[in-house]
Amino acid sequence: MARELGFAEDDLLARAGQRSFERGRGYLDAVSGLEVGDGWITATVHGTEAYEVELTEDREGGILGECDCPYGQEGHFCKHCVAVGLTVLRQASAIPRQRAAAAKRSAGLDAWLKALSHDELLALLREQIAHDRGLRRRLELRAASARSDMAVVRERVMAMLDVRPFARYGYVEYEDAGAYAEQAAEAVDALRALAAGDRAHEAMLLAREAIRTLSQTYGDIDDSDGVVGDVGRDLADVHLQACGTARPDPVETAEWLVQHLLSELNDVTDIDPVDYRKVLGPTGLARARELAAAARRRAPNEWAEKYLMERLVKAEGNVDALIAVYAADLSPTGTTHLRIAMELDAAGREAEALDWAERGLRDTGKTGNADDRLADYVCARYAQTGRTADVVAVRRERFQAHRSLAAYQVLRTAAETAGCWKTEREAALEVLRADATEPRRGWHRGPVLVDALLDDGDLDATWQAAEGRADDRQWLTLADRSKDTRPADALAVYLRLIEPLKQRTGGRTYQQMAQLLLTARECHQNLGTQEEFAAYLTTLRADQKRKRNLMKTLDEHGL
What is the pTM of this model? Predict the structure, then answer.
């Protein structure tokens, strides 16, 4: 089950933080009533009071937690959530059985409902409606939509978009955003049903009102998971659907669209004028461009006005006009050059596209802030026509402008293809060696030399370059790759990295120390000095014996 929910101990630690994670360990015996369903886990944790905990997934498959303890109600992943998560991980073998039991209960409920008569179901539903105002509102909206009672539909839609019932302190907090989004989505579903029928015009007007309402309140919602934003985009889709069915006046639609996009109310909808090109037609597009041009004259440097004009010209399908808009405000990073090249490519004008991309490389010069995608585009075009030497030249220039491991790697790939890596590598390493010895720049660019040598697998050269320059991450990587061939050197690194960890506490620190000790033991085995390691470990355990969790971690790793 834990794997299906996509979490492990590290995920619990990352969600809760070190303090809550460690405190959660102490509540494992306080967890009861564990239930497992399809993508959810619930349990009761007995602390100062009995707290209800629910673990679920976010959109990326990570873990979310809700608890009705005071700390959990503030939106935190509390110690009670940690305790439930750890309990699940420790009962992994029992999870399939609990899932099966939950499925059996669900099937039993479904069978019971199917066996009820019409009157019995109606009585049951009325009983639930009497005790659940949210359910009542949702069903009233569905009923009004079914009979096209627009006055009631509007009142219910606006009520379901009202954030006040969820804003306990004048603000919808993180833990309440999901419930609000679920309710608001019901309103969007009702509008979608209307938009598909013969009330599309009314649905369009109501969707505009709903967009304004949601956009005005969006700044008062902690939408960290983006669930309310999803509702906003769905609402915009419904408006477009209704426009497509109702075919409203194109001039009036253009005026609404421009007004909306130039207001501060578009954050939650992401409406794109290109999607409205069929709805607007030539007349509406012309009116929208007229309004956008006037707005840009008033505020020539504002992003919204610039973006609107670009998207309207894009909607018209005039490539040369769009390029003229882009070319009037070229980015110093070459991003605009790339956009022009891609538009020309899409229009089948490949030669002009490459010319613009090459111009972008020239205009950005040797600055370190040029868009890497521009160089990637040019190199891909060169590679298609066998211009491997030109690819190397571009990659070399990019590396010299921005000396990073990534730039070194793509230079190596290009030069290996062209058969000139030996020469290019020595020149690149000379640049990195110079950086590493420059007092003003070596502090942040010197380690790139170490990374480059490690990436090449040149461990002997890396040991020479690392002294006095490498950071702990690089030393650890070098030691891990060298423990079989240079065990004494690797052992010295491991022992040095262990020392500062002795002064720290916490589960992550203890795991790091255990891993370092395991690799140190490997080095001693390779050196034939196991007795020396045993003596070192005995001394370390004696010095750190008060850290009970550390002792437990070492025991778990056989140390």
Answer: 0.64
